[in-house]
Amino acid sequence: MSAVPYHVIFKQQVSRPLDKVFEFFSQAENLEIITPPWLSFKIRSVSPSPIQKGSVIQYALRLHGVPLHWTSEITEWEPPYWFVDLQVKGPYKLWHHEHRFEACDGGTLITDTVTLALPFGMVGRVAYRLRVRSDIQKIFTFRQEKIRQLFG
Fold this sequence. Notes:
Layout: E1 6-14, H1 18-25, H2 30-33, E2 42-47, E3 56-63, E4 66-78, E5 82-89, E6 94-104, E7 107-117, H3 121-151
């Protein structure tokens, strides 16, 4: 049986202009700022830099004490409105993260849409319900709080 894809969406309104918000998100090093410290997240390389369509970003992190290496490719790039990063190597069978930015009410609406699937069939589905879903929620809750601190 193939992996079941899950879809999670996070939205946040900030009081900064669209171009400034996109500029922040288009700098790979800022991902370390908005990632929870308990993940020990570090960017290993970005090529080419600055980020553009085709850029490959390599990360190292620790999830529940387990060291992981993750590689993403920027597969879509439409400044200042959206971009997509796709996991090409990492813990998920599928990780497709669409970042959208929309001018709204004198600021910017940020929408993160993640489509993910876990390996290991039924075991992956159980892991999603028991742990992965809440981990993702915690990561994006932290991220939203950091973004609120940075952008209001």
